[in-house]
Each structure stands twice: as structure tokens, then as C-alpha cells.
Amino acid sequence: MSFATHAPLAASRIKDIADFEGVRENMLIGYGLVVGLNGTGDTLRNAVFTQESLVAMLERLGVSTRGNTSLKTKNVAAVMVTATLPPFARQGVRVDANVSALGDAKSLRGGSLLVTPLLGADGEVYAVAQGALAVGGFEASGQAASITRGVPTAARLPSGAIVEREVDFNFDSLESVRVALRNPDLTTAQRMADIINDRLGGDPARATDPGTVEIAIPPQYRQRTAALLTEIEQLPVTPDVPAKIVIDENEGIIVVGENVKISRVAVAQGNLTVRVSETPQVSQPNPLGEGQTVVVPRTTIQVDDQSNRKMVVLDTGVTLKDLVDGMNALGVGPRDMIAIIQSIKAAGALQADLEIM
């Protein structure tokens, strides 16, 4: 279990904390076949969709296999292909693709993806993928043992998809540009608008809501919107973050924000521990004497009430450093920190949001 804190926030570029409206990626998906596998493909009798796809593909190439029930190849696998279409990607540009087995294939190592159209959310084909796969995982087995490292049924297709359709978006036709904050905050949005106005002069930028800053394109940047965005995205802005503590109980992680403060509160931590230990001893009679060997019980009881743990008072308005120092003064172990923070919140003394993941 670990305890982490935020360092004081420094100024960040607008391009690092916000996105421009219209400059976005698009998700693509497709269904295809991988061939050339070394007996690690789908079992056709189990994966009916693989057999149907194989038959349809062969028919398109002039090979008729309808009615043939003897197809038993294990060198073919049905896969799902996904890719991300970058913003302003032009025809002919190559992008990476991910390939994942859909049936019961054991591995995609050594396989090649056949021509696979990649569709967007509107059902149109935006890219076509084909090529040899790069598999990071592997599987090896013998008669008595087997080993699998990574995921051999997932692969990458580096630069294996070619863009066939562009997403139209004309910057120069815009009369205003909207900037979307990745972490919406009203103070940060207003700071961003003020910085942009200082740079451009006048009052072209305004914060319309905690997550959006709208910029009216000045006359000198008409038909030059890309130049305007290039100048704006480099401007430094200091983000404002809310007071928040995030606790991940599964991983044992506590993250405390810089602006967290607590009211005056007294904290004590300790548990009553009783230890009972048995150390039996063997009692034997004197040499040549009468008697018998017996086991004599010996019991030791120790009580630890942790009386050395003292109650510590945390004064009003203490900062993050004071909170951490106070917990350390109590000798609090990491497993007790979560319970103490929750108790301080329940007492109404924690001036921050508490988020349990």
C-alpha cells in the first residue's frame, strides 16, 4: 500500500490540458481472416463463422467449395481488426491496426491478415488493412508441460492499414473555435480565456461553461485558423484542481490533492492485541526412580493495549503536509490510513471530496 501526494501545479500548455473542437480521432473496426498459421487456427467445426467466411472468400476468388464438408484446415482464424483514424488523415496515409482472435485459435504467430475493410460509426469504409502480423506473446507445450507468455491471440499490424476516405473538416470556414477542457473546471476555463485575450488583444475568448472556452476568430486570422490555433495552444495556463482524496482500496493507493484541508480534530489510533502462546515442557522422573514421563503445559499471555499511541490534535486549516505529518506522528500503518481518512470525513472535519474507487 502506498501514499502519494500531488506536487504544486505548474503552468501547462493549453494543448496539454484541452482539445480543439473538430480535432479528434475516429474509431474503426472490421472483420477479417488471418491465414498462414502453423496449425494454431480456428477449429472449423467449432467456429462456424470462420468456415463461412473462408468459403465466401474462396468463392470471390473463383474457387467453389459449397457443399464440401471436408474442410479441416487449422491454418485460418477469424479476427476482429480495430484501428484509430487520426484527425486530418489524408488518403494513402498508413496507420497501425490491432488484431484479435474471434474463435478458438491458439496463436496468431506467423499469420497474415487478408484485405479487411475498416468501418467507421457511420458504416462507411475509411481504411483497408492487410499484412503480416507482429505477435508479442507465445505458447509452447510438450507432453507433460506447457508455457504461455503474453497473449498470443492478439497481434499488431504496424502501418498495416491504408486510409481510403478522409473526414472532411475545414478550419477556415469557422467563425469561432471552441476549446474543450479535459478536466472541466470553471476557474481553469476563465484563466484560459484571460490568457488568450491578453495574447490576442480585445475580448475574443470567453468561458461559456466549466468545460468550454469559445474563441471568436479575430479579423487578422480569417482564413488562417490553423495559425491561430498554433499560437493559442502554446500559451501557459495554471490549472485549478478541486480538493479531493482518491482511495483505491483494491490496490491500496491513497492520493491526496494539494488543496485538501481539515478542520481542528483530534485523532487517536490503536488496537487491543492479546497473544496466547503455548510452550509445553517435558517432565521426566529421576534416574532409577519411580514415576513416568509427562508433558507439563506452559501458557504465556501478553496483552498489548498500545498505550504508547497518543492522541494527536490536528489544528484548523492544516495543509496536506500537516495531515501526513500528523498520521506519521501516530505511527499509523498504511492499512489504517484509509480508515482514518474516512473517519475524519465522517466527522465533518475533512474539507475535500472523498472518492472511493
Short description, anyone?
One of its GO terms (cellular component) is outer membrane-bounded periplasmic space. One of its GO terms (molecular function) is structural molecule activity. The protein has 357 residues and is an alpha+beta fold.
Number of strands: 26
Tell me the Rg in angstroms.
Answer: 33 Å
Judging from the principal axes of the Cα atoms, what is the shape?
flat
Strand order, largest beta sheet: 4-5-6-11-8-7
On the 0 to 100 scale, the average pLDDT is 80
- Beta-strand residue percentage: 35-45%
Number of domains: 3
- Binned, the helix content reads 10-25%
Largest sheet: 6 strands, antiparallel, barrel
What's the N-to-C terminus distance?
Answer: 15 Å
Number of helices: 6
Low-confidence stretches: 1-8
Structural class estimated from helices and strands: alpha+beta
Main attributes of the structure:
357 residues; alpha+beta; Gyrase A, domain 2; six-stranded antiparallel beta barrel; four-stranded mixed beta sheet; disordered N terminus; flagellum; Flagellar P-ring protein; structural molecule activity; Flag_FlgI; cilium
Walk me through what this model shows.
By secondary structure, the chain is α+β, with helices and mostly antiparallel strands. The protein folds into 3 domains: 10-21 and 170-237, Gyrase A, domain 2 (2-Layer Sandwich); 26-140 and 147-163, no CATH class; 242-357, no CATH class. The protein has helices at residues 14-17, 48-60, 186-200, 225-232, 320-329, 334-346, and strands spanning 2-5, 12-13, 18-20, 26-35, 77-85, 94-101, 112-119, 125-132, 138-141, 146-149, 154-163, 176-181, 205-209, 212-216, 236-237, 244-248, 253-256, 261-262, 265-267, 273-278, 281-283, 294-296, 299-304, 312-314, 350-351, 353-356. The strands form 9 sheets. Strands 4-5-6-11-8-7 form a 6-stranded antiparallel β-barrel. Strand 16 (244-248) and strand 17 form a beta hairpin. The two termini are 15 Å apart. Residues 1-8 have low confidence and may be disordered.
